[in-house]
Amino acid sequence: MDVAVAWSPDGKNILFRSGRSSGMPVAKLFTISADGSFPVEVPLPMAQEGVYSPDGARLAYMPLAPAFAQWKRYRGGRMTKIWLANLADSSIEEIPRTNANDFNPMWVGNKIYFLSDRNGAVTLFAYDTTTKRTTQLINNTGLDLKSASASSEAIAYEQFGSINLYDLKSGKTSKVNITLNGDLPSVRPHYERVASRILNAAISPTGARAVFEARGEIISVPAEKGDARNLTNTSGVAERDPAWSPDGKWIAYFSDESGEYALHLKEQSGIGEIKKISLGNPSSYFYSPIFSPDSKKILFQDKRLNLWYVDIAKGTPVKVDTNTYENPFRVFDPSWSPDSRWIAYTKQLKNRLCAVFLYALESAKSNQVTDGLSDARYAGFDKNGKYVYFAASTDVGPTTGWLDMSSFALSSQITRSVYAIVLKKDQPSPLAPESDEEKVQDPNAPPVPPKPPAKPEPVTVAVDFDNIGQRIVALPIPARNYVGIAAGKAGTIFLAENPQGATVPGVTIQRFDVDKRRVEKVLDGATAFTVSANGEKMLFGQGFGPAMRFVIASTAAPLKPGEGVLNTGEMEVYVDPKAEWQQMYHEAWRVQRDFFYDPGFHGLDIKATEKKYEPFLENVAHRADLNYLFQEMLGNMIVGHHSSVGGDAPQVQAVPGGLLGCDYKVENGRYRIARIFNGENWNPQLRAPLTQPGVNVNVGDYLLAVNGRNLTASDNVYQFFLDTANKQVTIKVGANPDGTGAREVTVVPVGTEGGLRNLAWMEDNRRKVDQLSGGKLAYVYLPNTAGAGYANFNRYYFAQLDKQGAVIDERFNGGGTAADYIIDYMRRPLMNKWATREGEDFTTPIGSIYGPKVMMINEYAGSGGDLMPWLFRKAGVGQLVGKRTWGGLVGIYDYPVLLDGGQVTAPRVAFYNLQGQWDVENYGTPPDVEVDLDPKLWRQGKDSQLEKAVEVALAELKKNPPPKYKRPAYPNYYGAPKAPLAARNSAPTSRKK
Questions:
Q1: Contact, 541 vs 550, CB < 8 A?
Q2: Of the chain's two ends, which shows fewer C-beta atoms within 10 Å, N or C?
Q3: Are 898 and 879 in contact (CB under 8 A)?
Q4: To 5 degrees, how large is the angle CA 324–CA 325–CA 328?
Q5: How high is the pLDDT of residue 84?
């Protein structure tokens, strides 16, 4: 995205920022003339905002983007600074600062005005370029100044909620009284279709209808006949997680109508009074209500890791159990027994594996029924009351540390087998031996009249816990990665499988018949699935968002394409934006109260702060205003990973431009190709248009025409490729600007060059390290500590095991998980060598580079990119070179979505070191050798950080050269006697007699 930043002093050119030409994931500055001709890059490696000196010879600019819109008093490595660049050679000087954020530079005369939090709240400062002195101009003890703009006479600045003028001559400020009169369409109540906003779904007991949560409303939709029915009609109230009672009467859901979430029950018709059940004080967030088969009780979970049930008539919640660990996923997966007297669930033990528990309502006692040596999940009763089914894995152990990258390698290989627990001692196994026998017919026997169908007897569940572990039997179901089990009719269960290598998102649903002992596939690509109370119908969803569809189908008959699709498209709700904003305002604070890792909120009185900012709600006129308010008020919590994003804002239809994966220069009135970026044309994500087989466009060729349109230097080349991404385009290229000898070729432009340019930057760095080190050092770039970083490490580190050392580049690391996997491989010591008759000797372990390693860091590396260098140093792998990282190690996951699809986070998992100190957060991981990315050297083609890293690694290699290991002489067991092998491998010992 291109963003205008400033004008040139003569008013002829616009300064703007763009990521268009950077191999690093940051923006640069460009100028473009007002007539829109080809832009020119400002020779700086990275930049965010800038303003010219009056003579145009220098630029006051921010090399770093502002760290976070919602992080006040930020003091990590990415504190913003203002550099003064000499545009003749890109040499820089910095406006002096200590531990502060300087931003928004404005150059008037010989002074640079800017905003800074160096003395507390953000306010206005001036730097005199002659005296080199900095002066605070406005004493601010209130809300932060957010932005400013200068003329020759005054500076207009925004102090949250007001616009003011600072007179440059008098030094006085005055408020600008602004009155806006407009229709403000974004505040108008309106009706909205909400099929794309579905978050939760349930099915009626016979499958006649389904019920959905969408945009805070509970909506019932018929399987075939009738209309969708909004049961709640409460714009400005959040209603969540519907469940339908087995007797068909009630729909239960959680509602914050009172200001805290409570359990509400409403008749399925939508008519009548609502039964409301308080869920205790302090309140919390609640999930997944499940009716008992007798429709008299409801199971649910809370954010505080508790499992509860409530007797509807009594209205007092009863705690069943509390899980051991907080995870980004819930593990109870509870279910009722068919007689409503027992609850089966799984709970995480201290070894992080789950075990199956059975809770008896009558005795209020819970018993563990699996041994905890395997990970047992998804426990549920058969409708016959004889068995409890569950899935268990013995290979899940290395993946239970969900934050650790080491779990990546095995997570896709997890398999679970499915088991049945026989509850009574005298009950036979569902897999008892069977034998088909011929019945002997007696010709003299009178005919036996058919028996009328037996009336089903009520099921009563009894459990013999004595030796119950010996009554667990493995069902004849293939071991796969099952992620859920649902009970159907008696003797039938449905299994949700996460298939390996699936091309369609979602799970595969399998059905297992106990009597037939047979598994059959029901459907693929399910993104939601539930079975009706009578076991005869199922509700499933496929797809996501606007493309998601829901189907009600028989659990027994084969699926027929197109049958049973619900008309969710007619789901419509009344939206009152002002009422929603009021609810979301309080929800945002509730999320902080219940999810933030520190119950003291970093010392902030959140109740008082909520009250302080509430008056601003009155003037919110657009959803973007609400996010702006959220960022200002929640920023007082002073923490990373804190954000307020999304929501019901207008979506601008983008027109994707096409790009050829090259750099241009203007020569002889034409565009000439200056560089072509190689991709990996076998990789669809890194397709390079100009290096495809048969294209044969070369550096130095002129681009003369696009789809028959003549292209000259007075045109903007990018306009010729509007709406051409991933479409065939005919270009005319040739070695001569007049077009002689030119030819036409067909190319398919890409929508973004970011991947191609980043790959080129990586490969340039790898070649540079190889050149500077004389082939001794490997270079590995790690863009994050998630999937891409894992893939890059596996690809590039192990491909360079022949090197004597390594430079690991984690600059701009976007984070993700804890990179223990990467650290473990880099610190593996050489244990021994192996010899074979032919070929080179090899080592144990094989997968390591044993020489010195240096890690490059910078201000943009954060989160997992903060932790990885911290672990690198902690493990003694090597030295860190560069700049302090951004400092964000309070992580985020799993928050309730706001009414309109927006989200606020409340950081909830915090890092501390073994000395009992909170570490890295709001500071970062500092380097051992500090060196900045010098713009002057960069302009000369040098990367000061990269070259320093190579220098440090080579110095360590010189200090500790790799030892040379000599293969021993082969043993001769018929020559002179030698010491026994055992004697060579053990130290002498002494014993007292």
A1: yes
A2: C
A3: no
A4: 145
A5: 98
